Amino acid sequence: MSVRVVIGAQWGDEGKGKIVDLLSDQADYVARYQGGANAGHTLNFDGQTHILHLIPSGIFHHNTCCVISNGVVIDPLTLLEEIELVEKTETSVEGRLLISETAHVIMPYHKSLDKVGESALGQQKIGTTGRGIGPAYMHKIARVGIRIMDLLDPDFLRQKMEANLTEVNARLAAYNSPPLELDPMYNQMLDAGEKLRPYICNTTERIHEALAAGRDILLEGAQGALLDIDHGTYPYVTSSSPVSGGACIGTGIPPTAIDNVMGIAKAYCTRVGNGPFPTELKDKIGDAIREAGHEFGSTTGRPRRCGWIDLVALKYAVKINGMNELVITKLDVLDKFDIVKACTSYRIDGSETTRFPLRLKEIDKVEPVYTEFNGWKESTREATSYDELPQTTRTYLEAISDYLEVPVVIVSTGPGRNETIVAGDI
């Protein structure tokens, strides 16, 4: 038996979907443990591109059971659409997809609150996707949230929706937004609940049965460690805990059951939305990285901010996650650069440090200090083993590994399943 947590080690969009898809071939269970439909995991195989938002990335491996765990906030309508899209690929979902009965529901009114609240922030916008994630987690913490199991209890569902809508409409009125009607939403959610009924169960119990049976389990996070609600660049963060500790809360698996924590990082760095980004390149190099990497959000389509890899931030992610495995993705994006840089320290008010600051005023003052590497100026996409990579490429990867004190176990040189080099023991 092995239990591995797969986390984004930067600001999200690191290519976790591809890596989880790769590892799922040998996994019995893949469980998503936090976030909602604000994350898009892109998979490329057999000449097709598939974007998943809620269903774990292992769904296309027919012997793998996929779990949407209690820590996820679920938009039932989006999930039903996603199930339909997966089934159109002739992939069986029934019996292989489990939905936690205690996962919280993103209601239509959460999306309304998200949009008006974000709009009211003006220039201080967080940069949310408008998918209702934050308001759903707010209701969860306020203990007025609606859970998946509630969709199967018509009277209780109506009672909870009536109570919530009174508060929601009062908040919408404060933003000069029209009130929402109960009945259309209620009927919509009741119908969605019935359609999802075959998948709903006590997923914590099922996962513990898998643990007892010695099954191999992958725990899949969304977003990235630097967007964690507690440990990220607050308030420019997500509303849940993408870090490895969040996997325990989000699934019910104890910390003692986890064997490996695998961090996924791009060979450079990107960020979507607002918030600090010390190595951001607002020049032709940043534009070139964006173009070569097709850096546009799979959920929103927004152009991603691009920059050189930030090893100070990555070292911080290693610490808070206990990462003992590192994956470098999108290496091929850097194939044509004469010089490749890595940020190895920060200069703040004239002093140099390798500490990642958490105060926004400090981060805003950061001047990245770079180590330069010779570019390899040749394609890495044809390499099938680590030794086939150019020596200058290996020098770059080994410098990253040495700085972080974590071995690089996988290198991704393109979006396809076959464009992957397993460089260590996994």
- How many domain modules? 3
CATH class of the largest domain: Alpha Beta
Helical/strand content category: alpha/beta
Quote the distance from N terminus to C terminus. Answer: 13 Å
Main sheet, how many strands, which sense, barrel? 10 strands, mixed
The number of distinct β-strands equals 20
The gross shape turns out to be globular
Percent of residues in beta strands? 15-25%
Rg from alpha-carbon coordinates: 22 Å
What's the mean pLDDT score? 93
Tally of separate helices: 12
Instruction: Quote the CATH topology of the largest domain.
Output: Adenylosuccinate Synthetase, Chain A, domain 1
User: Strand order of the main beta sheet, please?
Assistant: 9-7-5-2-10-1-11-15-19-20
- Low-confidence parts, pLDDT < 50 over ≥5 residues? none
In the CATH classification, which architecture of the largest domain applies? 3-Layer(aba) Sandwich
Can you tell me the CATH superfamily of the largest domain?
Answer: Adenylosuccinate Synthetase, subunit A, domain 1
How much helix is in the residues? 25-40%
Keywords: Cytoplasm, GTP-binding, Ligase, Magnesium, Metal-binding, Nucleotide-binding, Purine biosynthesis
Binding site for IMP: 13-16, 38-41, 129, 143, 223, 238, 302
Main location: cytoplasm
Pathway: Purine metabolism; AMP biosynthesis via de novo pathway; AMP from IMP: step 1/2
